[in-house]
């Protein structure tokens, strides 16, 4: 056995002569889905033992199966069950609830992976798409830090501390207020700004620390790339590339650039105001020269940061272990040094300087939003060009899902920044009117939220109407599915309603498309209104029609309230999740879907759990099959099926020949294939079907997440079984004396079809390594069709469309 382990670690396959006695053993590797579960629930046994792994992710077995390889005779005709538990990667301790604040970063990172499928001759266009998404991500970092600067520098240090009435209401600002402190040392505006700069600088440092720590904890696992079989798979594409799940170099480079961008934003907030004062009031020549030098340094630093972001993307075709150490180390350090020098410069004594109105720089937020809008439009143009090169009707929004999601990420960033500024301004001033408050643009931005909510309500009304129509249509389908049962109208209506609700998932592209388009248009209205009027909407509408004045006042007041309350609810939800494990698990479901992808666009996004989970599964499958020579079925539910497919892509050909794939409740095509066509589109899934030995997929019409894989028949035997009946029994029967539940997305293993399909896959996987598949597509005599029952019955199983099918052709792997 030790020699077998040595061969497995070195990547050597075991020949039939070297195969141990455990070659006939079969293993079922279970992978759970979103929300997580316990190994006891997965294995249906209260006594489990951890086979390998740690507290974060591990493989478990039942205690009785711990030494199954030593007792192969006890497992003839049945597989050894194992459970891979990865829920702690996304919904572990309470601190991960704070990841909610990184939601805009996660969403824009998704946009990077949503590009359409293209041919190899569009490489430059693909690179341009990734570059534009990285630039949008950079603007989101700048927007977040600018919002912190607005709160700390402008509202607190500049406006409130510089206003006697506001400072008197907040004693903690007394030492910064000129009157309250008797013109103390900290009361000069430059020194107040220098002290307040610690808040956004600390926020930037916290983001850097979280990104660095989570990389070490989650994403530093190197894929299994060593071994003799590595060069056998020279045609790997997409998720099968050696470096796909190891983006250390890009994440480190982007982390340095975004950290530097945050520090430069703080530098600009502190230093440009002092430089403007020195130029305008005829101050000392030395200070004026230092101000010009500061501005020049900011421009140089900005150019360097943008150059680093634009320099290159991911290295996926090889495992890139290199690190740009000089850049990663000195770019943030240089920005920090520049900030320190700026703080000293701003803190220089200027007795005549007084803080009046708002801090100069109101155009900052409008400029950021303008750049974001132009970049999103550019991403839309590039995505359209990519889609035209290889169109696919199943692709969500005809290839425009990426720019639409990027637009929503920018909108979330705007809500966060505006909500923080509005609530802090209200807290500092209340209704006193002693300070000017946040920039005019943020008020305009909040004022367009009520019209957006009207559009969303209209969309929800359309969804409700569509649900009623679908339920009526499903009533007849339910009656046809249970023809011999006595009909119960309420039971039929409940089943039909569940099916109708499940089908609404397919309407998501329309909802996202309309919402993002309206958001873009309303953002343009807010930007134009703020730039032309230079007043809040209520003041800008004065003197016009009474209806316009009333609408503007209502939108301004309601929008300010909504954006503030929305942000408070968001923070409250995060705080509740910190203390409540059930709420934490709900948030974990969001991350299960949103953080599957590596951090290719934004380094401050929540960590990618798949960069830990996929290598875990790959190592487990490769080492077990090569050590024992046995058969393995990887069985994935929901998001677990996506992890299982990603791990199967990473396997070498000699291992894939011993592995079968069983998916159920799988979003592989319904969600991932439509929204991420470049990596889960028809070409990618068909390639996986050809390369894996055999694959079956189970789904239900009542499942809102899982669905058929919809692979064409020319790439091998059908993957999809006809939709499973749900509920298993319409009324009370001898087998189901009590009403059977409507399972929807859960408990697929309760259906007899699950055990049947698993046994078919194990029957197809022979103890000996199967030979090449015939060129003509016919199955060999030693390779039974998975649609043929194991008892020899020649009745073919159902296909993806629900119709009976014969033996389909299967091309060579």
Automatic annotation (TrEMBL):
The chain crosses the membrane at residues 126-148, 193-210, 256-277, 289-310, 330-348, 368-387, 399-421, 441-463, 511-531, 558-575. This is Integral membrane protein. InterPro entries: AB_hydrolase_fold. Residues 1-24, 762-813 are annotated as: Disordered. It comes from the Bacteria. The keyword Membrane applies. Keywords: Membrane, Transmembrane, Transmembrane helix.
